[in-house]
């Protein structure tokens, strides 16, 4: 059992400090996933809050069948799908720019590399934005959260081969677009 699952079980027993650790540990990655997937800061904030509310509400029923991050991202993904079903959001160029601006640069970058790194990340972000929804979700789960194909399948509720195919098509499209 991973450390996060142990913390979630402790939280289920009433140890609120365990939740604080989980929240601190996963809030950044969760918010980035939601923001980059939803492409709408207001929706991402709403889904972020809803995801943590669901974690809190389901603490007594939590069973560590998968990694905590997989479970957390699955909740977020399901909320995102529900949101898409209600209203399909459309990202504008300004929203894509704000998403990119929120992507933190590594602190160890040298000043002379900032512009080239910025351009590389901008091209990657634009290429990811052009992917179909299913492929974009798969690639973001892989790149942003380092999930395996099996975990991506679990989060998105599809079979392993479907997740693998979506990831492969997405990576091929990204390679093609970035090679131009």
UniProtKB/TrEMBL annotation:
Organism domain of life: Bacteria
Endpoints of the signal sequence: none
Domain RNA polymerase sigma factor 70 region 4 type: from-to ranges: 122-174
Gene3D superfamilies: 1.10.1740.10, Winged helix-like DNA-binding domain superfamily/Winged helix DNA-binding domain
Coiled-coil segments: none
Keywords attached to this entry: DNA-binding, Sigma factor, Transcription, Transcription regulation
Entries under InterPro entries matching the protein: RNA_pol_sigma-70-like (IPR039425), RNA_pol_sigma-70_dom (IPR014284), RNA_pol_sigma70_r2 (IPR007627), RNA_pol_sigma70_r4_t2 (IPR013249), RNA_pol_sigma_r2 (IPR013325), RNA_pol_sigma_r3/r4-like (IPR013324), WH-like_DNA-bd_sf (IPR036388)
PANTHER family linked to this entry: RNA POLYMERASE ECF-TYPE SIGMA FACTO, RNA POLYMERASE SIGMA FACTOR HI_1459-RELATED
NCBIfam families: PRK12513.1 (NF009166), sigma70-ECF (TIGR02937)
UniProt name for this protein: RNA polymerase sigma-70 factor (ECF subfamily)
Species this protein is from: Dyella japonica
């Amino acid at each position: 059992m991973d450390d996060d699952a142990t913390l979630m079980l402790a939280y289920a027993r009433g140890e609120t400090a365990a939740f604080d650790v989980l929240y601190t540990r996963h809030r950044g990655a969760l918010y980035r996933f939601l923001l980059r997937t939803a492409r709408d800061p207001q929706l991402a904030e709403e889904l972020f809050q809803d995801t943590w509310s669901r974690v809190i509400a389901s603490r007594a029923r939590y069973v560590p069948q998968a990694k905590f991050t997989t479970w957390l991202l699955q909740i977020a993904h399901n909320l995102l799908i529900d949101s898409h079903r209600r209203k399909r959001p459309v990202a504008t160029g300004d929203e894509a720019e704000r998403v990119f601006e929120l992507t933190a640069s590594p602190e160890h970058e040298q000043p002379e590399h900032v512009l080239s790194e910025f351009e590389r990340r901008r091209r990657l972000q634009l290429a990811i934005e052009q992917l179909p929804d299913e492929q974009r979700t798969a690639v973001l789960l892989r790149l942003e959260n380092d999930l395996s194909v099996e975990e991506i399948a679990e989060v998105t509720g599809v079979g392993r081969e479907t997740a693998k195919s979506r990831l492969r098509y997405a990576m091929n499209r990204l390679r093609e677009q970035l090679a131009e």
